[in-house]
Amino acid sequence: MSADRPKRFLAFDDLPAGGIEALLRRAEELRAQRAARTPHGTRPGRVLGMVFEKASTRTRASFEIAMYELGGHALYLGMQGSQLERGEPLRDTARVLSGYCHGIMVRTFGHDRAEEMSRYATVPVINGLTDLMHPCQVLADLLTVVQRRGGSRDPLRALRDASYAWIGDGNNMANSWIEAAGILGLDLAIACPAGHEPDAAVLARARAGERGRVTVVRDPAEAAAGRSVLSTDVYASMGQEAEAEARRVAFAGYTLDVALLRVASPDAIVLHCLPAHRGEEISDEVIEGPQSAVWQQAENRLHAQKALLELMLP
Ligand code: CP
Ligand code: NVA
């Protein structure tokens, strides 16, 4: 493994300095190559093992297609039909897959489970979502902001010229946004109800740097005021299904709707990692409206992850 090839990508801080910017630049090149139908099979014969302990549409599809288009192959292992469902430990799965694959992507519950996987694997491990972090999604979100703001030549500047609001749960997505904001020096306001704040340690780390400007407020309008990127996500994440009703009550008023969008910058874009619950965290009018970038954001999973796979897979 080369010196600057990360052993794992469980969070943004696993990347070397300048890593996010390099990935965004390469992702944009790969997007353009694909659009021009220029073959970009830079990883022939490589295999990515994909372990899913939770459901997925985008993550599975985008990683699988990314590997195919890079000239390699992706192997899907879900709970159903594998020994995971019968309790085979992740650390055993990690060692077995390391014998077959050049890298492993894992989607699981506790972040410690992904960490365990990477401790036992002898190949790089990529976080395809944990309860704590969803960095692959936020990488695609950042790429979307760069594209929408015409910043492909200077992605970092384009990102820093924008301002960001997160509306809703302080969940895995919010945490990865906070981490990115701390590393890149982004101005990010989080609006969440009491008791649903982002992870305290993630927040403290982002604020420790000189650049991080992350604030947490209660009022969605305060967070959204004048901002150029508004993001939201479901009230109840995967694994929180039993709390769904209580969360609907706790998150009343935390809806990215037309009234909220009106207080943002007039050229603001709206992001949602999907799947969305229209009428809960986002209105149908907003997600289907002209300021919504969600389909481009979903497509960007493919381009961003190709860049990531090139970095991670020897
Ligand atoms: N945004 C995202 O990760 O979607 P999936 O759950 O469908 O993979
Ligand atoms: N916060 C959501 C993201 C889904 C992509 C979840 O964890 O279910």
Description:
The protein is α/β, with parallel strands linked by helices. It has two domains: 8-134 and 300-312, Aspartate/ornithine carbamoyltransferase (Rossmann fold); 137-298, 3-Layer(aba) Sandwich (Rossmann fold). The chain is 42% helix and 14% strand. The protein has helices at 19-35, 58-69, 90-98, 111-120, 135-148, 155-161, 172-184, 200-208, 220-224, 244-250, 258-263, 284-287, 294-312, and strands spanning 8-9, 47-52, 73-78, 103-107, 125-127, 163-167, 187-191, 213-217, 229-232, 269-272. It has a five-stranded parallel β-sheet with strand order 1-5-4-2-3, with helices on both faces. The longest helix has 19 residues, at 294-312.
List keywords for this structure.
314 residues, alpha/beta, Rossmann fold, 2 domains, five-stranded parallel sheet, 10 strands, binds phosphoric acid mono(formamide)ester, binds norvaline
What's the helix and strand layout?
Elements: E1 8-9, H1 19-35, E2 47-52, H2 58-69, E3 73-78, H3 90-98, E4 103-107, H4 111-120, E5 125-127, H5 135-148, H6 155-161, E6 163-167, H7 172-184, E7 187-191, H8 200-208, E8 213-217, H9 220-224, E9 229-232, H10 244-250, H11 258-263, E10 269-272, H12 284-287, H13 294-312
Parallel strand pairs: 1-5, 2-3, 2-4, 4-5, 6-7, 6-9, 7-8, 9-10
Helix pairs in contact: 1-5, 1-13, 2-13, 3-4, 5-6, 5-13, 7-8
The chain binds phosphoric acid mono(formamide)ester and norvaline.
